Amino acid sequence: MDKEIDVKSIAESTFQETNVDEGFLVLTFKNEKSVAQSVAKEIDSDYIQFHFCVKGATKFMFNQGRYALDIHEESSLLLYNPQRELPINLYVEPKSWVVSILISIKKFHGLFSSEADHISFLNDDNKDKKYYKDGVITPSMAIVLNQLINYSLNSSIKHIYFKGKAYELLSLYFNRSEDADIEQCPFLVDEANVIKIRQAKDIIVSRMSEPPSLQELADEIGLSLKKLKEGFKQIYGDSVFSFLFDYKMEVARKLLEAGNDNVNEVGLKVGYSTASHFIAAFKKKYGTTPKKYIMSLS
Known about the structure:
Layout: E1 11-13, E2 16-21, E3 24-31, E4 37-41, E5 47-55, E6 57-62, E7 67-72, E8 75-80, E9 88-92, E10 96-104, H1 105-112, E11 131-136, H2 139-149, H3 158-173, H4 191-206, H5 214-221, H6 225-236, H7 240-258, H8 263-269, H9 275-286, H10 290-297
Parallel strand pairs: 1-4
Antiparallel strand pairs: 2-3, 3-10, 4-9, 5-8, 5-10, 6-7, 6-9, 8-11
Helix pairs in contact: 2-3, 4-5, 4-6, 5-6, 8-9
C-alpha cells in the first residue's frame, strides 16, 4: 500500500463506458494530458473488477485516497469483495491508458460454472471471501486491450465488437497455466534449480535473435535437458521456445508501435532473417500482419 494521496488536487475525468451484456461492462480511459487524472465509478459489491494498465501507470485508490494499490504498465489487478462495496477510483498518470472490465458474480458464474475449482475465488472455500490478485498482461491480452482502447470502427458495430473482445479478454486472462504456481511443483523445492531455470530464461531473452539450442542451454545452466524442460514449464507455464516466441512477438509489437523501424528492421531485431518469415510469425501470433497492426493504431 502507498502513502496517502491528495485526491482533491487531481483533475477529474470520466470513463468511456460500454455495456456489452447484462451485468457486464467495459470501461476505457486514455489520459493523454500532461497531468494526472482521476476517474471514478460507483460499483455494487456483487461485481468482479478487472483493471488493466495498458500503458503508463495507475493506482486504485481506497478510502478517499488514504491508501492505494499500484497497477504498473502491462499489469492487471483483479478485485472482488462480496462483503463491502469497492467504488472505482483510479488515479491515472499522464500518458497512461486503462481498461477496466466489470462483471457481476452471477454472470461470471454462468460463464465459468464448470470451472469453479480451477478459478480459486469461485471454489466453495473462497466464494464468499474478498479476493484480489495482481498479474501481468500477456502479449495476446495486450492486442485485445489495444483494440478496445484504440477502437476506430463504425459506431454501429461498437456493441458487438466490444462484446466479442471483452469475452476474448476474459478467456485469455483465465488461460494461464496452473503449473506456473511454484508452491505446487515438487521439482522446484530445490532453490538452486529455480535460479538455473531463471538463468535459462535470461539467456534466451538476451540472445533472442540467435538463441542456443535446448541442449546448449541445458549445458550452459548445468541441468539435464529433461529438468530444463520440466522446470521451465513449471515456472513459466510454457515450453522454452514457445515462451521465446511470445517474448519476441511482444518485443516486435512494441518496436512497431514506437515507429522507429520498418517491418524488415523489426524482424531482424527479433531474429528473423527475412521479412516474410517475420510477417508469417507475427500473423500466427496476433492474427494480423505487422503493417495492418500499425494501421490499426492510427
